[in-house]
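I have been asked to look over a protein record a colleague put together. The record follows directly below this note.
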Amino acid sequence: MPAFSDPFFEDRGNLSLSLRDVFDTRRYAGNALTNRFSQDFYAKRETRIFLMTARLNF
């Protein structure tokens, strides 16, 4: 997870940026099998996320 952090306001504040799943590769798959039933499943949810966080200590 690439991240960047930078202090401001004489080190009283902090701004952080991060990015998750940069290449959009996270997937979920599986199967269920019984004597009478077979199921394969695949899911691709929104996993590419950009976060910006600001913090100020006073």
About this structure: The mean pLDDT is 87.
